[in-house]
Amino acid sequence: MPLYAAIAGFALYLGITGWRYLALPFPALDTLEHPEVRSPAVRNWQAQGEEWATRIRDNGWYRDDSLTLRRLASLLGTNETYVSRALNEGLGVGFSDFVNGLRCEDVAAALAADDSRPVLAIALDAGFASKASFNRAFQRRYGRSPSAYRASHKR
């Protein structure tokens, strides 16, 4: 019973409040002031992608074998959508291709510098989690196996 009384009291309050403002004219939509509608800012995703790629390369974040898009976005101080758009639209590559490309560059530089460690050790240090993923990415990037690449850069 107290709940019904409270609801009835609230309904009575709304009715009286509405009745008090009954004489006021309802504003027409064309007389209301509209805030200026601004179009969203157009971003240069290519410049953003290049800037972030430089930061990722300089900080060596790609060497983390458990790097994810979410983790990379938090390291860059932005969200996953922006990182993904900067890579896809700005640089024309997906996240995994981008990261594996940086890792392959790291391995290729070590092989060209005549690093005496085994190729797999270099690949694991560069951030690859397995031999198969490393070989596949390196072959796609350079068109030859890592050992053939090393042999072609022997002095």
Break the fold down into its secondary structure elements and pairings:
Layout: H1 2-20, H2 45-59, H3 69-76, H4 80-91, H5 95-112, H6 119-126, H7 131-142, H8 146-152
Helix pairs in contact: 2-4, 3-4, 5-6, 5-7
The CATH superfamily label of one domain reads: Homeodomain-like
Query: Structural class of the secondary elements?
Result: mainly alpha
**Shape verdict:** elongated
Amount of beta strand? under 5%
CATH architecture grouping of one domain: Orthogonal Bundle
Q: Main beta sheet, described? A: none
Helical content stands at: 55-70%
If you compute it from the alpha carbons, what radius of gyration comes out, rounded to the nearest whole angstrom? Answer: 30 Å
Report how far apart the termini are. 96 Å
Report the top-level CATH class of one domain.
Mainly Alpha
Oligomer: single chain
Q: Stretches where pLDDT falls below 50 for ≥5 residues?
A: none
Summed over residues and divided by their number, the pLDDT gives a mean of 89
Q: Could you state the order of secondary-structure elements as H and E? A: HHHHHHHH
Q: What is the strand tally?
A: 0
What CATH calls the topology of one domain is Arc Repressor Mutant, subunit A
Per DSSP, the total helix count is 8
